[in-house]
Amino acid sequence: MAPKPSKAKVAPPLKAKLDIGTRQSTLVRFSRGSYASHRAIERLLRQVREEGIPDASSRASQWRARAAIAGQVGPFGPLVQDLVLPHSDITYAVQHPMAMLHFCCGDEKYVGFVCLMRYALRNHPPADGPWHLVMYADEIGHNPLGHDNRKCECIYWSFLEFGPAALQTEDAWFIVCVIRTKQIEKLSGFMSHMFKLLLKRYFFNSQNGHHFKNSGVRIVIEGKSFFIFAEFGAIVADEKALKEVFCCKGASGFKFCPICYELCDHKADPAYQIGYIPGTCLDLRKLKRQYNTNESIRHLLVDLRDMHARWQRAEITKDQFEKTEKHYGWNHEPENLLLDEELDVKARDVLMHDWIHIYVVNGLFNVEVQFLLLFLKAAGILPRMIYDFCSQWIWPKHMHPPRDVFSDARVSFDNDHFKCDANEALHIYAVLAVFLTVVVVPKKICILQVQSFLKLADVLDLLSMVKHGLVDAEAVKLGGLAHLRAYQAAYSVVSWIPKHHLSIHLSDADKRLIGCLPHERRHKLVKRWSKDRYTLQSFEKGVMEELTLEHLYALETDWLSPGLVEPRAPEPNILTAFQDAIGDPLADDIKCSMTARVCHGSLVSAGDLAWAMIENHRCLVDVVYHFESGGEPYTYVNMWESVPGPSDNAQAATFREISRETDHLKCVRTECIVASAIFLPGARPNVATALVPPFLR
Length: 697
Ligand SMILES: [Zn+2]
Prior knowledge:
Layout: H1 14-17, H2 20-29, H3 38-51, H4 59-70, E1 73-74, E2 77-78, E3 80-84, E4 91-95, H5 97-106, H6 111-123, E5 131-140, E6 152-159, H7 163-167, E7 174-180, H8 181-184, H9 190-203, E8 217-221, E9 224-228, E10 230-237, H10 239-246, E11 263-264, H11 270-273, E12 277-278, H12 284-289, H13 294-312, H14 318-328, H15 347-350, E13 351-353, H16 355-360, H17 364-378, H18 383-391, H19 422-440, H20 447-464, H21 473-491, H22 498-502, H23 517-531, H24 539-554, E14 563-564, H25 572-582, E15 591-593, E16 595-597, E17 603-605, E18 609-614, E19 617-629, E20 632-642, E21 652-657, E22 665-669, E23 673-676, E24 679-681, E25 687-691
Parallel strand pairs: 5-10, 10-13, 11-12
Antiparallel strand pairs: 1-2, 3-4, 5-6, 6-7, 8-9, 14-16, 15-19, 16-17, 18-19, 18-23, 19-20, 20-21, 20-22, 21-25, 24-25
Bound molecules: zinc ion.
Residues 257, 259-260, 263, 501, 505 line the site of zinc ion.
């Protein structure tokens, strides 16, 4: 049967019909009346030029189109389904995990997700055993200082089998629900109850057979059929969210660690600490002897449930019950996820602290830098000197330069921790380490404090390599302990926070380390779609439909493979250069771009210095341009040559640009580029000292 003709009408090009004045006037009128960013208008007009104008475009039509696509029905029902919470007559919405998985695998349009599944199926064939679900929970607010009735709890899920590189990208995570915090607070048991409901209804539902572990999910990829079975593998979250999901006492409790049974807050009244291990203990053998197991946690919770019943029968007093809760380090909650026998969640095995929150979100980095600055100031090294040093460095275009974090406006010695966000911390720590090595170490001042920070930088190096699959739990454990010992040598236990102890558990067992950066990036999308809604009517359903459509759109790109970002046709004068580079003067499918995705989804733009592996050699290159032909991405680079300087070491190396007039301008496959470089321009022209990424040392 002949395909139906498209209903889209192709708009006549304005350029041909209008003189310049009218064309400019028409262009600026697109921005008037209702606000849309210039980038949005550019994208919209480009799409209209390529695909034409749809017959209907009113808000109601847009709403119907969104609802139709998000409501597509498959073997597991619609993608976005209604959810009615207990004791509530309000209907919320969830993205059904199995429906979404089935849908994304079955359509080759979602090439990014199909590639990811192909990779996971090759490395973890379903016949070898069940996969492992990993979930992430976090709260997203719009107004941290005032009333915020759009504050939401977001729950994401993925498979551990996708691998550490994919799990560091936002598109490898599905979002199961976004529900206003106020609505979840109406549930007894709050987030623990919410998790239980979601797991029992949508992941492990024994009533209707939608059960990841028992019946699995049948998916079809590229014509081949697979059954994916999965069990609950991990919950990753910050300390606050884990406390809410598991109902443990949390960081403010006397027993703040859900894994350690005998560990207590070292700042508590010494009389209470008798018989406990203080939270500052670094004796791993002593700590391991008292770790909770899955079974011991279950026993504690069942015991608390019995104690609560006895208190209700007036057999014991409220005081006795609360003292038991404090002694156990857990709260009683009838709807606790961990008390559900059918789900049988193994608390110790699935609990996973998010390393980003432990180290760089009001974490160990922030505490340590605050005290380091105090010690350096006392020794005559002012934050201004660090600021001046950092100001000379250049960061890649896609990174927001964090050089002003040490400016007078940002540094305050009145705070108990250094204030900067997670990205700033991760982009500045290596430069600060260079400053300490080059400027402070030769002065032989603050020796212990500098050693402690350099150990911390080593740990952050290790954690940054997790996504490359080059680091194991043992290395993180040893590095983490070495840092904690160096911290105590430098500062004793001053400003020792629960996160110092919790960092020890990051490397427990064979857990894979997962950071929250992809979720923080995804939060921006959630904020965008939850902020712009005028009313709270059908809030959850509208937000879930928009987020589902956004995710489907993103999955159309193979985001994990090297490729161009927003490619477009090249100008005729440079087309020939690209045709020459690939040796095909007739190639007519060439596209080019200023920015490309490289290793693990990182971005590298024209003008950046970047690290490349060319013929098995580590090279520094100047990125000139990206282009693609036949779907294969290439990059023009200008080579730099190594000219080791006196202060070079494993962390930093000096290079000199080879003149562009020579034939050192090279065309390489984009997959050779492995990371963008942070560098310090040298005193001589065309010389730079670049930080060597940990995975290239
Ligand atoms: Zn512990």
